[in-house]
Amino acid sequence: MPFTLYNYVLSGNCYKVRLLASLLNVSYESVSVDFHPGQAHKSEPLLQLNPAGTLPILVTEDGIVLTETQAMLVWLAQHHDPDNTWWPMNNNQLGNSQLSDGQQTALILQWLGFASRLSATIGELRLHSMLNKAIDVAAAQRGSKIALRELESHLTEQRIKGCSWLTGAKPTVADIACFPYTALSPDAGIEHDDYPAIRSWLHALRSLQGFVTMPGIYELHELRNPDAPIPVKHSTELAPGHPPGVTQ
Amino acid sequence: MNDHTNGALNADLNGAGHARKYWYPVAMVGELDPGQTRQTQLLETELILTGSGSSIEVTADGNTLAVQQAFDHWWVTLSDEPLPLFSIPEASEAGRRLVPCGVVRVACSPLRAVENFLDIAHFPFVHTDVLGAEPHTEVYKYDVKIDEKNDEVIASNIRFYQPQAAKSAEGGIETEYIYRVPAPMVSVLYKTCPQKADAMDVIALFVQPLDEETCNVWPWMALYDDTSTMADLIQFQQLIFLQDRSILENQIPRKLPIDPGLEIPTRADQTSVSYRRWLKKRGAWYGALENT
User: Fold this and answer.
1) A137-160 and A101-118 helices cross at what angle (nearest 10)?
2) B57 - beta bridge partners?
3) How much is the pTM?
4) Which residues of chain B approach chain A closer than 8 Å at the C-beta?
5) H or E element at residue B163
6) Predicted confidence (pLDDT) per residue in A79-111, tens digit
7) How does strand B152-162 pair with strand B173-183?
8) Residue B85 near residue B75, CB atoms below 8 Å
9) What is the number of other CB atoms lying within 10 angstroms of the CB of residue A120?
10) Alpha-carbon distance B127 to B132, whole Å?
11) How many whole angstroms separate alpha carbon B43 and alpha carbon B208?
Protein backbone atom coordinates (compact mmCIF):
# COMPACT_ATOMS: atom_id res chain seq x y z
CA MET A 1 0.00 0.00 0.00
CA PRO A 2 1.37 3.43 -0.90
CA PHE A 3 0.26 4.99 2.40
CA THR A 4 -1.50 4.49 5.71
CA LEU A 5 -4.26 6.90 6.77
CA TYR A 6 -5.13 7.39 10.43
CA ASN A 7 -8.76 7.98 9.85
CA TYR A 8 -12.02 9.04 11.50
CA VAL A 9 -15.24 8.45 9.61
CA LEU A 10 -16.94 11.73 10.58
CA SER A 11 -13.94 14.00 9.97
CA GLY A 12 -14.21 16.29 6.96
CA ASN A 13 -10.42 16.55 6.81
CA CYS A 14 -9.97 12.75 6.74
CA TYR A 15 -12.64 12.66 4.06
CA LYS A 16 -10.57 15.00 1.83
CA VAL A 17 -7.87 12.33 1.66
CA ARG A 18 -10.37 9.47 1.20
CA LEU A 19 -12.08 11.43 -1.57
CA LEU A 20 -8.97 12.33 -3.57
CA ALA A 21 -7.57 8.80 -3.16
CA SER A 22 -10.82 7.44 -4.57
CA LEU A 23 -10.89 9.94 -7.46
CA LEU A 24 -7.31 8.92 -8.29
CA ASN A 25 -8.14 5.23 -7.76
CA VAL A 26 -5.39 4.77 -5.15
CA SER A 27 -5.84 2.09 -2.50
CA TYR A 28 -4.42 2.58 0.98
CA GLU A 29 -4.49 1.16 4.47
CA SER A 30 -6.97 2.84 6.80
CA VAL A 31 -6.54 2.75 10.59
CA SER A 32 -9.68 3.82 12.47
CA VAL A 33 -8.95 6.20 15.34
CA ASP A 34 -11.57 6.54 18.07
CA PHE A 35 -11.82 10.35 17.93
CA HIS A 36 -15.25 10.35 19.58
CA PRO A 37 -15.93 9.32 22.26
CA GLY A 38 -12.47 7.79 22.89
CA GLN A 39 -10.32 10.91 22.20
CA ALA A 40 -7.71 8.47 20.90
CA HIS A 41 -6.14 11.20 18.71
CA LYS A 42 -4.94 12.78 21.97
CA SER A 43 -3.48 9.50 23.25
CA GLU A 44 0.26 8.91 23.59
CA PRO A 45 0.94 6.68 20.56
CA LEU A 46 -0.76 9.12 18.20
CA LEU A 47 0.74 12.20 19.85
CA GLN A 48 4.15 10.73 19.10
CA LEU A 49 3.17 10.59 15.45
CA ASN A 50 1.46 13.99 15.47
CA PRO A 51 2.19 16.28 18.45
CA ALA A 52 -0.64 18.56 17.31
CA GLY A 53 -3.14 15.84 18.26
CA THR A 54 -5.17 16.23 15.07
CA LEU A 55 -6.48 13.90 12.39
CA PRO A 56 -5.86 12.79 9.73
CA ILE A 57 -2.28 11.55 9.79
CA LEU A 58 -0.83 10.14 6.60
CA VAL A 59 2.30 7.96 6.66
CA THR A 60 3.78 7.18 3.26
CA GLU A 61 5.30 3.78 2.56
CA ASP A 62 8.75 5.40 2.53
CA GLY A 63 8.13 6.78 6.01
CA ILE A 64 7.18 10.42 5.52
CA VAL A 65 4.65 11.54 8.16
CA LEU A 66 2.20 14.20 7.01
CA THR A 67 -0.10 15.89 9.53
CA GLU A 68 -1.48 18.78 7.47
CA THR A 69 -4.42 17.74 5.30
CA GLN A 70 -3.69 20.13 2.47
CA ALA A 71 -0.12 18.80 2.23
CA MET A 72 -1.54 15.29 1.98
CA LEU A 73 -3.65 16.31 -1.00
CA VAL A 74 -0.61 17.75 -2.78
CA TRP A 75 1.43 14.64 -1.99
CA LEU A 76 -1.33 12.38 -3.33
CA ALA A 77 -1.73 14.39 -6.51
CA GLN A 78 1.99 14.64 -7.17
CA HIS A 79 2.52 10.91 -6.75
CA HIS A 80 -0.67 9.37 -8.08
CA ASP A 81 -2.12 11.64 -10.75
CA PRO A 82 -0.62 10.63 -14.10
CA ASP A 83 -2.33 13.53 -15.91
CA ASN A 84 -1.00 16.15 -13.48
CA THR A 85 -4.29 18.04 -13.40
CA TRP A 86 -5.06 17.89 -9.66
CA TRP A 87 -1.83 19.69 -8.76
CA PRO A 88 -1.05 21.23 -12.14
CA MET A 89 2.49 22.37 -12.86
CA ASN A 90 1.46 24.45 -15.85
CA ASN A 91 -1.66 26.00 -17.24
CA ASN A 92 -1.87 23.83 -20.32
CA GLN A 93 -3.01 21.12 -17.98
CA LEU A 94 -5.80 23.29 -16.65
CA GLY A 95 -6.98 25.17 -19.74
CA ASN A 96 -6.56 28.51 -18.00
CA SER A 97 -4.70 30.66 -20.48
CA GLN A 98 -5.19 34.02 -18.81
CA LEU A 99 -2.97 33.11 -15.83
CA SER A 100 0.77 32.53 -15.69
CA ASP A 101 1.95 29.24 -14.17
CA GLY A 102 3.14 31.09 -11.06
CA GLN A 103 -0.19 32.85 -10.63
CA GLN A 104 -2.01 29.55 -11.05
CA THR A 105 0.04 27.84 -8.33
CA ALA A 106 -0.34 30.81 -6.00
CA LEU A 107 -4.13 30.76 -6.41
CA ILE A 108 -4.32 27.05 -5.66
CA LEU A 109 -2.23 27.60 -2.53
CA GLN A 110 -4.50 30.47 -1.55
CA TRP A 111 -7.57 28.20 -1.72
CA LEU A 112 -5.74 25.51 0.25
CA GLY A 113 -5.30 28.16 2.92
CA PHE A 114 -8.95 29.15 2.63
CA ALA A 115 -9.83 25.51 3.34
CA SER A 116 -8.25 25.91 6.78
CA ARG A 117 -10.58 28.83 7.40
CA LEU A 118 -13.55 26.61 6.54
CA SER A 119 -12.32 23.99 9.05
CA ALA A 120 -11.84 26.64 11.73
CA THR A 121 -15.34 28.06 11.25
CA ILE A 122 -17.84 25.59 9.77
CA GLY A 123 -15.81 22.60 10.98
CA GLU A 124 -15.80 23.83 14.57
CA LEU A 125 -19.47 24.82 14.44
CA ARG A 126 -20.27 21.33 13.17
CA LEU A 127 -18.35 19.71 16.04
CA HIS A 128 -20.30 21.92 18.41
CA SER A 129 -23.68 21.03 16.87
CA MET A 130 -22.98 17.30 16.61
CA LEU A 131 -20.60 16.39 19.40
CA ASN A 132 -21.22 19.21 21.90
CA LYS A 133 -17.71 20.69 21.54
CA ALA A 134 -17.41 23.90 23.58
CA ILE A 135 -16.64 26.82 21.24
CA ASP A 136 -17.50 30.49 20.70
CA VAL A 137 -20.67 29.76 18.73
CA ALA A 138 -21.47 33.33 17.63
CA ALA A 139 -17.93 33.87 16.31
CA ALA A 140 -17.97 30.56 14.44
CA GLN A 141 -21.35 31.34 12.89
CA ARG A 142 -20.17 34.77 11.79
CA GLY A 143 -16.91 33.36 10.39
CA SER A 144 -18.75 30.56 8.58
CA LYS A 145 -21.09 32.93 6.81
CA ILE A 146 -18.30 35.33 5.80
CA ALA A 147 -16.33 32.41 4.34
CA LEU A 148 -19.34 31.01 2.46
CA ARG A 149 -20.18 34.44 1.00
CA GLU A 150 -16.61 34.83 -0.20
CA LEU A 151 -16.71 31.39 -1.81
CA GLU A 152 -20.11 32.07 -3.38
CA SER A 153 -18.92 35.32 -4.86
CA HIS A 154 -15.76 33.73 -6.29
CA LEU A 155 -17.62 30.78 -7.80
CA THR A 156 -20.12 33.16 -9.40
CA GLU A 157 -17.25 35.06 -11.05
CA GLN A 158 -15.72 31.79 -12.19
CA ARG A 159 -18.97 30.79 -13.87
CA ILE A 160 -19.11 34.09 -15.72
CA LYS A 161 -15.63 33.22 -17.03
CA GLY A 162 -16.93 29.79 -18.04
CA CYS A 163 -15.09 27.86 -15.30
CA SER A 164 -16.89 25.39 -13.03
CA TRP A 165 -14.03 25.09 -10.55
CA LEU A 166 -12.14 27.27 -8.09
CA THR A 167 -9.07 27.94 -10.22
CA GLY A 168 -9.91 26.93 -13.77
CA ALA A 169 -11.74 24.62 -16.10
CA LYS A 170 -10.69 21.47 -14.22
CA PRO A 171 -10.89 20.56 -10.53
CA THR A 172 -7.68 20.68 -8.48
CA VAL A 173 -6.61 19.88 -4.93
CA ALA A 174 -8.05 23.32 -4.07
CA ASP A 175 -11.57 22.12 -4.88
CA ILE A 176 -11.09 18.95 -2.84
CA ALA A 177 -9.76 20.95 0.12
CA CYS A 178 -12.71 23.36 0.16
CA PHE A 179 -15.43 20.82 -0.64
CA PRO A 180 -16.13 18.86 2.60
CA TYR A 181 -16.81 21.59 5.14
CA THR A 182 -18.75 23.62 2.60
CA ALA A 183 -20.88 20.58 1.79
CA LEU A 184 -21.27 19.74 5.50
CA SER A 185 -22.44 23.20 6.60
CA PRO A 186 -26.06 21.95 7.05
CA ASP A 187 -24.67 19.67 9.80
CA ALA A 188 -23.75 22.92 11.55
CA GLY A 189 -27.16 24.49 10.91
CA ILE A 190 -26.17 26.54 7.83
CA GLU A 191 -28.25 25.53 4.82
CA HIS A 192 -27.14 26.03 1.21
CA ASP A 193 -30.28 27.84 0.06
CA ASP A 194 -28.58 31.24 -0.04
CA TYR A 195 -25.62 30.02 -2.09
CA PRO A 196 -26.65 28.95 -5.63
CA ALA A 197 -23.13 29.00 -7.13
CA ILE A 198 -21.88 26.87 -4.24
CA ARG A 199 -24.73 24.42 -4.84
CA SER A 200 -23.76 24.02 -8.52
CA TRP A 201 -20.11 23.52 -7.58
CA LEU A 202 -21.02 20.90 -4.94
CA HIS A 203 -23.14 19.15 -7.54
CA ALA A 204 -20.27 19.19 -10.06
CA LEU A 205 -17.93 17.63 -7.51
CA ARG A 206 -20.42 14.95 -6.53
CA SER A 207 -20.77 13.97 -10.20
CA LEU A 208 -17.05 13.20 -10.67
CA GLN A 209 -16.11 9.63 -11.59
CA GLY A 210 -14.91 7.89 -8.43
CA PHE A 211 -16.72 10.22 -5.99
CA VAL A 212 -17.29 8.70 -2.54
CA THR A 213 -19.66 9.81 0.22
CA MET A 214 -19.42 10.46 3.92
CA PRO A 215 -22.24 10.94 6.45
CA GLY A 216 -23.89 14.24 5.52
CA ILE A 217 -22.61 14.16 1.91
CA TYR A 218 -24.71 11.98 -0.32
CA GLU A 219 -24.48 10.49 -3.77
CA LEU A 220 -26.38 12.02 -6.61
CA HIS A 221 -29.02 9.32 -6.85
CA GLU A 222 -29.97 10.35 -10.37
CA LEU A 223 -26.44 9.44 -11.46
CA ARG A 224 -26.33 6.07 -9.77
CA ASN A 225 -26.75 4.05 -12.95
CA PRO A 226 -24.71 5.57 -15.80
CA ASP A 227 -25.64 2.63 -18.08
CA ALA A 228 -29.38 3.19 -17.90
CA PRO A 229 -30.91 4.49 -21.16
CA ILE A 230 -31.57 8.23 -21.16
CA PRO A 231 -35.31 8.92 -21.42
CA VAL A 232 -36.06 10.20 -24.93
CA LYS A 233 -38.30 13.19 -25.38
CA HIS A 234 -40.68 12.76 -28.27
CA SER A 235 -41.84 16.35 -28.69
CA THR A 236 -39.90 16.74 -31.98
CA GLU A 237 -41.93 13.91 -33.47
CA LEU A 238 -45.20 15.73 -33.01
CA ALA A 239 -47.12 16.83 -36.03
CA PRO A 240 -46.67 20.49 -37.00
CA GLY A 241 -49.05 22.81 -35.28
CA HIS A 242 -48.87 21.18 -31.87
CA PRO A 243 -47.13 23.22 -29.22
CA PRO A 244 -44.05 21.43 -27.83
CA GLY A 245 -44.71 19.18 -24.88
CA VAL A 246 -48.38 18.60 -25.64
CA THR A 247 -49.30 15.09 -26.68
CA GLN A 248 -52.60 13.71 -27.82
CA MET B 1 -43.27 18.36 38.27
CA ASN B 2 -47.00 18.82 38.03
CA ASP B 3 -48.27 21.70 40.09
CA HIS B 4 -50.80 20.00 42.34
CA THR B 5 -52.64 23.23 43.14
CA ASN B 6 -53.67 23.79 39.54
CA GLY B 7 -55.50 20.49 39.30
CA ALA B 8 -56.08 18.50 36.17
CA LEU B 9 -56.74 21.46 33.86
CA ASN B 10 -53.17 22.70 33.75
CA ALA B 11 -51.53 19.36 34.31
CA ASP B 12 -49.09 18.16 31.70
CA LEU B 13 -50.21 20.10 28.65
CA ASN B 14 -47.15 19.16 26.57
CA GLY B 15 -46.49 15.75 28.14
CA ALA B 16 -43.50 16.95 30.18
CA GLY B 17 -45.04 15.49 33.35
CA HIS B 18 -45.33 12.11 31.67
CA ALA B 19 -41.80 12.32 30.28
CA ARG B 20 -40.40 13.04 33.75
CA LYS B 21 -41.42 9.57 34.95
CA TYR B 22 -38.68 7.88 32.91
CA TRP B 23 -34.92 7.46 33.26
CA TYR B 24 -32.59 9.07 30.70
CA PRO B 25 -28.88 8.66 29.87
CA VAL B 26 -26.66 11.66 30.61
CA ALA B 27 -23.11 10.28 30.46
CA MET B 28 -21.11 7.16 29.70
CA VAL B 29 -19.70 5.25 32.63
CA GLY B 30 -16.07 6.26 33.18
CA GLU B 31 -16.41 9.45 31.17
CA LEU B 32 -16.09 11.87 34.10
CA ASP B 33 -13.01 11.81 36.32
CA PRO B 34 -13.61 12.40 40.05
CA GLY B 35 -14.31 16.11 40.54
CA GLN B 36 -14.74 16.77 36.83
CA THR B 37 -18.00 18.57 36.06
CA ARG B 38 -20.11 18.97 32.98
CA GLN B 39 -23.36 20.75 32.21
CA THR B 40 -26.16 19.21 30.28
CA GLN B 41 -29.91 19.50 29.94
CA LEU B 42 -32.85 17.15 30.41
CA LEU B 43 -36.44 18.06 29.57
CA GLU B 44 -35.45 21.76 29.61
CA THR B 45 -33.92 21.39 33.08
CA GLU B 46 -30.25 22.34 33.49
CA LEU B 47 -28.20 19.55 35.06
CA ILE B 48 -24.72 19.61 36.55
CA LEU B 49 -22.85 16.30 36.45
CA THR B 50 -19.88 15.74 38.75
CA GLY B 51 -17.60 12.72 38.75
CA SER B 52 -17.54 11.22 42.24
CA GLY B 53 -15.40 8.17 42.91
CA SER B 54 -16.53 5.54 40.44
CA SER B 55 -19.99 7.13 40.28
CA ILE B 56 -21.40 10.51 39.33
CA GLU B 57 -23.53 13.05 41.13
CA VAL B 58 -26.24 14.89 39.25
CA THR B 59 -27.90 18.06 40.50
CA ALA B 60 -30.68 20.28 39.19
CA ASP B 61 -31.23 23.64 40.91
CA GLY B 62 -29.08 22.39 43.78
CA ASN B 63 -31.16 19.23 44.30
CA THR B 64 -29.43 15.88 43.95
CA LEU B 65 -31.18 13.56 41.52
CA ALA B 66 -31.48 9.79 41.57
CA VAL B 67 -28.85 8.11 39.41
CA GLN B 68 -28.38 4.54 38.27
CA GLN B 69 -25.85 2.71 36.12
CA ALA B 70 -27.02 0.51 33.25
CA PHE B 71 -25.79 -0.47 29.79
CA ASP B 72 -22.50 1.45 30.19
CA HIS B 73 -24.33 4.72 30.85
CA TRP B 74 -25.48 6.80 33.82
CA TRP B 75 -29.25 7.21 33.89
CA VAL B 76 -31.07 10.03 35.65
CA THR B 77 -34.70 10.78 36.44
CA LEU B 78 -36.40 14.03 37.41
CA SER B 79 -39.19 12.17 39.20
CA ASP B 80 -39.47 11.17 42.86
CA GLU B 81 -41.50 8.13 41.79
CA PRO B 82 -39.99 7.03 38.49
CA LEU B 83 -41.06 4.02 36.46
CA PRO B 84 -38.53 1.18 36.60
CA LEU B 85 -35.79 1.22 33.96
CA PHE B 86 -36.45 -1.22 31.10
CA SER B 87 -34.23 -4.29 30.78
CA ILE B 88 -31.97 -5.65 28.05
CA PRO B 89 -31.20 -9.22 29.21
CA GLU B 90 -28.59 -9.67 26.45
CA ALA B 91 -26.38 -7.04 28.11
CA SER B 92 -25.20 -9.65 30.61
CA GLU B 93 -24.70 -12.54 28.16
CA ALA B 94 -21.15 -13.87 28.17
CA GLY B 95 -19.18 -13.31 24.98
CA ARG B 96 -20.90 -10.14 23.86
CA ARG B 97 -18.85 -7.01 23.37
CA LEU B 98 -20.56 -3.98 24.87
CA VAL B 99 -19.94 -0.87 22.80
CA PRO B 100 -21.08 2.56 23.98
CA CYS B 101 -20.68 4.86 20.97
CA GLY B 102 -20.62 8.32 22.58
CA VAL B 103 -23.18 11.04 22.19
CA VAL B 104 -24.46 12.86 19.12
CA ARG B 105 -26.69 15.93 19.34
CA VAL B 106 -29.53 16.18 16.86
CA ALA B 107 -31.88 19.11 16.25
CA CYS B 108 -35.01 16.99 16.10
CA SER B 109 -37.77 15.78 18.39
CA PRO B 110 -36.56 12.90 20.59
CA LEU B 111 -39.55 10.92 19.31
CA ARG B 112 -38.48 11.42 15.70
CA ALA B 113 -35.03 10.04 16.54
CA VAL B 114 -36.67 6.86 17.86
CA GLU B 115 -39.13 6.60 14.99
CA ASN B 116 -36.40 6.91 12.36
CA PHE B 117 -34.51 4.09 14.08
CA LEU B 118 -37.60 1.89 13.65
CA ASP B 119 -37.83 2.52 9.91
CA ILE B 120 -36.50 0.00 7.39
CA ALA B 121 -37.67 1.60 4.17
CA HIS B 122 -35.05 4.37 4.16
CA PHE B 123 -32.07 1.99 4.28
CA PRO B 124 -31.30 1.80 0.53
CA PHE B 125 -31.56 5.57 0.12
CA VAL B 126 -29.83 6.92 3.23
CA HIS B 127 -27.48 4.03 4.11
CA THR B 128 -26.72 3.19 0.49
CA ASP B 129 -24.53 0.10 -0.01
CA VAL B 130 -24.35 -0.53 3.75
CA LEU B 131 -27.78 -1.26 5.23
CA GLY B 132 -29.55 -1.33 1.88
CA ALA B 133 -29.10 -0.97 -1.86
CA GLU B 134 -31.29 -0.38 -4.86
CA PRO B 135 -33.10 -2.26 -6.35
CA HIS B 136 -33.67 -4.22 -3.08
CA THR B 137 -36.06 -1.63 -1.69
CA GLU B 138 -39.15 -3.66 -0.85
CA VAL B 139 -40.17 -3.96 2.80
CA TYR B 140 -41.84 -7.36 3.13
CA LYS B 141 -44.84 -7.87 5.39
CA TYR B 142 -43.88 -8.12 9.05
CA ASP B 143 -45.60 -8.34 12.44
CA VAL B 144 -46.17 -5.61 15.01
CA LYS B 145 -47.79 -6.11 18.39
CA ILE B 146 -47.96 -4.53 21.82
CA ASP B 147 -46.41 -6.80 24.43
CA GLU B 148 -49.06 -6.42 27.15
CA LYS B 149 -46.91 -7.82 29.94
CA ASN B 150 -44.11 -5.28 29.56
CA ASP B 151 -46.16 -2.65 27.68
CA GLU B 152 -43.67 -2.46 24.81
CA VAL B 153 -44.04 -2.11 21.05
CA ILE B 154 -42.57 -5.20 19.35
CA ALA B 155 -42.00 -5.50 15.58
CA SER B 156 -40.76 -8.86 14.39
CA ASN B 157 -40.27 -11.09 11.38
CA ILE B 158 -38.69 -8.24 9.45
CA ARG B 159 -36.40 -9.32 6.61
CA PHE B 160 -34.29 -7.04 4.49
CA TYR B 161 -31.40 -7.47 2.06
CA GLN B 162 -28.27 -5.70 3.35
CA PRO B 163 -24.98 -5.25 1.45
CA GLN B 164 -23.00 -4.79 4.70
CA ALA B 165 -25.23 -5.52 7.68
CA ALA B 166 -22.47 -5.06 10.28
CA LYS B 167 -18.76 -4.32 10.54
CA SER B 168 -18.22 -8.09 10.70
CA ALA B 169 -20.31 -8.89 7.60
CA GLU B 170 -18.52 -10.09 4.49
CA GLY B 171 -20.79 -9.33 1.57
CA GLY B 172 -24.55 -9.00 1.36
CA ILE B 173 -26.93 -11.03 3.51
CA GLU B 174 -30.66 -11.15 4.13
CA THR B 175 -30.94 -9.76 7.63
CA GLU B 176 -33.69 -10.45 10.12
CA TYR B 177 -34.71 -7.66 12.47
CA ILE B 178 -36.74 -7.45 15.68
CA TYR B 179 -37.48 -4.07 17.25
CA ARG B 180 -38.50 -3.22 20.80
CA VAL B 181 -39.67 0.14 22.10
CA PRO B 182 -39.53 -0.30 25.88
CA ALA B 183 -39.86 3.42 26.69
CA PRO B 184 -40.96 6.40 24.58
CA MET B 185 -37.38 7.55 24.00
CA VAL B 186 -35.61 4.20 23.73
CA SER B 187 -35.44 1.68 20.93
CA VAL B 188 -33.64 -1.66 20.97
CA LEU B 189 -33.14 -3.66 17.81
CA TYR B 190 -32.03 -7.25 17.36
CA LYS B 191 -30.55 -8.27 14.03
CA THR B 192 -28.93 -11.30 12.45
CA CYS B 193 -25.37 -11.63 13.71
CA PRO B 194 -23.05 -12.23 10.73
CA GLN B 195 -20.51 -14.08 12.91
CA LYS B 196 -22.79 -16.25 15.08
CA ALA B 197 -25.61 -18.06 13.31
CA ASP B 198 -27.85 -18.73 16.33
CA ALA B 199 -27.52 -15.29 17.94
CA MET B 200 -28.67 -11.78 17.26
CA ASP B 201 -26.67 -8.58 17.66
CA VAL B 202 -28.27 -5.91 19.84
CA ILE B 203 -28.17 -2.22 18.91
CA ALA B 204 -29.96 0.34 21.04
CA LEU B 205 -30.64 4.02 20.78
CA PHE B 206 -30.94 5.80 24.12
CA VAL B 207 -32.33 9.30 23.67
CA GLN B 208 -31.80 12.15 26.14
CA PRO B 209 -34.42 14.83 25.43
CA LEU B 210 -32.87 18.29 25.87
CA ASP B 211 -36.14 19.93 24.89
CA GLU B 212 -39.02 19.04 22.58
CA GLU B 213 -36.99 19.73 19.44
CA THR B 214 -33.43 18.84 20.44
CA CYS B 215 -31.95 15.62 21.76
CA ASN B 216 -28.71 13.87 22.61
CA VAL B 217 -28.56 10.37 21.19
CA TRP B 218 -26.42 7.68 22.83
CA PRO B 219 -26.11 4.63 20.58
CA TRP B 220 -25.06 1.42 22.35
CA MET B 221 -24.37 -2.08 21.04
CA ALA B 222 -23.94 -5.61 22.41
CA LEU B 223 -22.32 -7.62 19.64
CA TYR B 224 -20.71 -10.93 18.90
CA ASP B 225 -17.62 -9.79 16.98
CA ASP B 226 -14.17 -11.03 17.92
CA THR B 227 -12.27 -9.46 15.05
CA SER B 228 -13.13 -5.78 14.66
CA THR B 229 -11.31 -3.15 16.71
CA MET B 230 -13.38 -1.07 19.13
CA ALA B 231 -12.69 2.02 16.99
CA ASP B 232 -13.99 0.22 13.89
CA LEU B 233 -17.17 -0.90 15.68
CA ILE B 234 -17.88 2.60 16.98
CA GLN B 235 -17.18 4.24 13.64
CA PHE B 236 -19.43 1.82 11.80
CA GLN B 237 -22.29 2.81 14.11
CA GLN B 238 -21.42 6.52 13.86
CA LEU B 239 -21.32 6.28 10.07
CA ILE B 240 -24.88 4.94 10.10
CA PHE B 241 -26.23 7.31 12.71
CA LEU B 242 -24.69 10.45 11.23
CA GLN B 243 -26.22 9.58 7.86
CA ASP B 244 -29.56 9.63 9.69
CA ARG B 245 -28.79 12.86 11.50
CA SER B 246 -28.90 15.12 8.46
CA ILE B 247 -32.21 13.54 7.40
CA LEU B 248 -33.69 13.93 10.91
CA GLU B 249 -32.76 17.61 11.07
CA ASN B 250 -34.69 18.22 7.85
CA GLN B 251 -37.94 16.55 8.88
CA ILE B 252 -40.89 18.92 9.03
CA PRO B 253 -42.74 19.49 11.29
CA ARG B 254 -39.95 19.28 13.86
CA LYS B 255 -42.25 17.55 16.36
CA LEU B 256 -43.67 14.11 15.66
CA PRO B 257 -47.32 14.08 14.57
CA ILE B 258 -48.95 11.28 16.56
CA ASP B 259 -52.54 11.96 15.62
CA PRO B 260 -53.65 9.91 12.63
CA GLY B 261 -54.41 11.99 9.54
CA LEU B 262 -51.53 14.43 9.84
CA GLU B 263 -49.27 12.13 7.84
CA ILE B 264 -50.34 9.30 5.55
CA PRO B 265 -48.51 6.05 6.38
CA THR B 266 -47.95 3.07 4.07
CA ARG B 267 -47.82 -0.59 5.05
CA ALA B 268 -44.03 -0.37 5.50
CA ASP B 269 -44.69 2.19 8.27
CA GLN B 270 -46.62 -0.29 10.44
CA THR B 271 -44.09 -0.06 13.29
CA SER B 272 -44.23 3.71 13.20
CA VAL B 273 -48.04 3.66 13.26
CA SER B 274 -48.03 1.37 16.30
CA TYR B 275 -45.37 3.50 18.00
CA ARG B 276 -47.41 6.67 17.50
CA ARG B 277 -50.61 4.99 18.77
CA TRP B 278 -48.73 3.62 21.77
CA LEU B 279 -47.31 7.09 22.56
CA LYS B 280 -50.74 8.66 22.31
CA LYS B 281 -52.40 6.03 24.47
CA ARG B 282 -49.95 6.61 27.31
CA GLY B 283 -50.00 10.41 27.02
CA ALA B 284 -46.40 10.65 25.80
CA TRP B 285 -46.90 14.02 24.12
CA TYR B 286 -43.48 15.46 24.90
CA GLY B 287 -41.85 16.05 21.47
CA ALA B 288 -45.14 15.34 19.69
CA LEU B 289 -47.19 17.73 17.61
CA GLU B 290 -50.12 18.98 19.62
CA ASN B 291 -53.56 17.97 18.54
CA THR B 292 -55.01 21.08 16.91
Assistant:
1) 150
2) B50
3) 0.89
4) 28, 31, 100-105, 107, 125, 128, 134, 216, 229-232, 234-236, 238-239, 241-243, 245-246, 249-250
5) none
6) 999 999 999 877 666 666 677 888 889 999 999
7) antiparallel
8) yes
9) 15
10) 6
11) 8
